């Protein structure tokens, strides 16, 4: 039998385990963030985790930067245990968080992310999901610089150690539609190993699911091209 995993919505009783998991990772590519941000994300229903046979194998956050229009959501704090890398879990985490933020925060939320240049894995995942470089003013995303020890040197022309990306509306809806159509996917590594991943987040249940269904149905593919312009 192959490996299986479930991506689900985190709840407050998972908070201590999530924080311990991130701290134990020793990954210097994870951007620093106060514990209160994680709890706010969990309370909002937009923090996801993955388990395999009960074991925590990955986490991924989404954080509200601006709750009034235009609503801005930052995706961050994604980490997958080393032995489960190569199955595309990061991309599935991206898909799950897009759906959660859209269904639970605001259907017109603009979703952004900040990635250090050396974090090639996360960069590849967000580009594959349809994110594009953000060229406009990204000062809201820079608010965490106050917590960060990896600031650009005085001789650098960079304002921040990160590159910023956003997902256009059309691609955002494509990711939601893909999740609604196939909440369980089989993903394989180059060596032939397979992981069956079920995405069972709260946004796919009840009223939030109905909102996603209505949103995808209302905005037909032809209209999505216009939304990206």
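^ structure tokens above, recovered residues below v
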């Amino acid at each position: 039998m192959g490996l299986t995993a479930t991506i689900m919505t985190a709840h407050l009783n998972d908070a201590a385990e999530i924080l311990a998991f991130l701290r134990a990772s020793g990954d210097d590519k994870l951007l620093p963030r106060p514990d209160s941000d994680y709890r706010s994300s969990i309370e909002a229903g937009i923090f996801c985790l993955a388990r395999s046979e009960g074991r925590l194998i990955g986490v991924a956050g989404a954080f509200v930067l601006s709750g009034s229009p235009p609503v801005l959501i930052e995706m961050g704090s994604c980490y997958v245990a080393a032995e489960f890398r190569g199955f595309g879990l990061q991309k599935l985490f991206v898909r799950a968080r897009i759906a959660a933020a859209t269904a639970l925060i605001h259907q017109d939320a603009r979703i952004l992310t900040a990635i250090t240049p050396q974090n090639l894995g996360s960069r590849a995942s967000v580009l594959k999901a349809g994110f594009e470089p953000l060229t406009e003013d990204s000062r809201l995303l820079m608010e965490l610089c106050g917590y960060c020890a990896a600031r650009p040197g005085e001789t650098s022309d960079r304002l921040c150690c990160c590159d910023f990306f956003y997902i256009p509306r059309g691609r955002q809806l494509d990711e939601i539609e893909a999740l609604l159509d196939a909440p369980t996917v089989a993903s394989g590594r180059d060596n032939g190993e397979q992981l069956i991943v079920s995405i069972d987040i709260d946004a796919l249940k009840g009223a939030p699911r109905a909102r996603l269904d209505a949103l995808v149905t209302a905005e037909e593919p032809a209209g999505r091209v216009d939304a990206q312009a």
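Confidence is low (pLDDT under 50) at residues 225-229.
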